[in-house]
Amino acid sequence: MKLLLTGGAGFIGSNFVHYLLKAHPDWEIFNLDKLTYAGNLENLKDVAGHPRYHFIHGDIAGAVLVERLFSDYRFDLVANLAAESHVDRSIMDAAPFIDANIKGTQVFLDAARRHGVRKFLQVSTDEVYGSLGFSDPPFMEETPLDPSSPYSASKASADLLARAYHRTHGLPVVISRCSNNYGPYQFPEKFIPTIITNVLADKPVPIYGDGLNVRDWIYVEDHCRALDLILTGGRPGEVYNIGARQERSNLDLARSILRILDKPEDLLTFVKDRPGHDRRYAIEPAKIEKELGWRPAASFDECLERTVRWYVDNRPWWERVKSGEYREFAKKWYGEEKF
């Protein structure tokens, strides 16, 4: 079985590569990644020489490259994880989000249609549903899309495009929409790594607005197991929500991390709120639980402490990311001329 995975040098993508190589000893994994700021080949240095893993440096929106890859390797499965995903960056400049999240998805859908792949997994986000009030029921797969940011609007557009390819062309597309992830290798500008790394450096921890914005959190390895089940067993044309039923306010989550690290709460610093900041996300995962038998493997508290300890034990990794030194790893490993 040959799987083409996009965005495999990012946070979720690199965890998914590690997971798949262990879970499927008869699969060959091809990882296409543009290596923008969030792509870090150091995340995959322990599998760089693996006989069933192949890295390809390139843009998912590059139609010529993508067509050549599909023609040369005859992929059975596609998992599209590549995306610009940082809300604040999308507010400052939406153009890269249109190129990667919409144009890139269209290029891949066309290539997959021409070459008859068995399954196309479009990895999306709960942010396409918009915001919930504190007393509202969780998002269902049938919840209307109502994105709030340029990022979530670009992902909603890609989802609609993927469903249209299923209905128009019969392409076996499945879509996953997941809640907020946390775990190893997450880019340090994201919320949980920002808290951990700032606290470890005894720097202030920025909290948007009043800190009461609520998110549903899932450990990245649980997300990877869910993606595997959807890719192999999900019904074409269907959407599957992935959530761990672990809602936490930003303020409570920050306080939990401070307690784990035995640091004072006076490190918390409230800053001006983000424009269009969604108040609450919550995911109802009953469909994937019933159809595919998925459940989170461990408790939130256990996984959060595991995540904090990973950042404590891997300080050189996130320090290289924050300094920009991590980008030199790709040049050393794959050759200066490719970058």
UniProtKB/TrEMBL annotation:
Pfam families in the record: GDP_Man_Dehyd (PF16363)
Reaction(s) catalysed by this chain's protein: dTDP-alpha-D-glucose = dTDP-4-dehydro-6-deoxy-alpha-D-glucose + H2O
Cited PROSITE patterns: ADH_SHORT
Coiled coil regions in record: none
Keywords: Lyase, NAD
UniProt key word NAD: yes
GO molecular function, one term: dTDP-glucose 4,6-dehydratase activity
Gene3D superfamilies assigned to the protein according to its UniProt record, in alphabetical order: NAD(P)-binding Rossmann-like Domain, UDP-galactose 4-epimerase, domain 1
Record InterPro entries: dTDP_Gluc_deHydtase, NAD(P)-bd_dom, NAD(P)-bd_dom_sf, Sc_DH/Rdtase_CS
Residue intervals of the NAD(P)-binding domain: 4-306
Signal peptide range in chain numbering: none
Family from the record: Belongs to the NAD(P)-dependent epimerase/dehydratase family. dTDP-glucose dehydratase subfamily.
UniProt cross-references to PANTHER family, sorted A to Z: DTDP-D-GLUCOSE 4,6-DEHYDRATASE-RELATED (PTHR43000)
Stated name of the protein: dTDP-glucose 4,6-dehydratase
Species of origin: Desulfotomaculum copahuensis
Lineage of origin: Bacteria, Bacillati, Bacillota, Clostridia, Eubacteriales
